[in-house]
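Retro notes, structure queue

What went well: the backlog is down to a handful. What didn't: a couple of records were mislabeled last round, so from now on we paste the full input next to the output in the thread. Example, using ABC transporter permease from Alcaligenes pakistanensis:
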Amino acid sequence: MNRLVIQTISVLVFFLLWKAYVSGFDVSPLVLPPPEDVLHALVRLMQRDDTYYHIYTTLAECLGGFCIAVLVGTLLGQLLGRIAILDTIFKPFVIALQLTPKVALIPLFILWFGFGIESKIIISALLAFFPVFSNSYLGAKSVDSGLIEVFQVGKASTWQRFKLLVIPASLPYILTGMEMAIVLAIIGAVVSEFVAGSRGLGYLATIKLQDLEVDTLFAVVILLAMIGFVLYFTVGSLRKVVIPWHESAKSVKK
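Corresponding output:
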């Protein structure tokens, strides 16, 4: 409760400072509208039916890309982390892909997958992939060698070692990667809508900027931040369900 009160007060102080800055320095509403105008714009925005269509589109792109990134990143990270020859062959390609500016690849994905939701999902998955992969890879590499020897002495099968040792040891790392990935998945969806979107909250923000509806533009940004908070804390709460025994899950409970 103390943390919740402190966080609430900090948010209120932020908006008070925002209001004081706008009023004290006579800032133009075309540059930074006062917070009450943004709040009214947010209320108007949520009363429009098409807003929920844009929200659904962005969520579909974000969650679709996130699921692909988690599936492919976890699997590839485990394989490269446990099989040395695969690590030697494929890791340079994975690193090269991560070092490549993702925005530069957007025109290619639009060329290959079109202007529909498919290209946005792929872009979102690409941005979210590397945190999941790197943490899954690290988790596979971090399995205690002594425990591996115990399983070998007990003549456990490869599947038993994977199920009872590697996966439980890797899950804290994978969940950390997922927390970072959901944020990047949202960024990927919104950026792709900026560049080549005809729907979604990123596209809506672009339209409001072109129409100089700055208060509504800020309202869209706040709406995106709220969605991001919900998705981030939803993914973070998985620790209490998946790894309740781990110290990080205990700190979440507190």
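Agreed that this is the format going forward. Reviewer comment attached to the example: The chain is about 85% helix and 0% strand.
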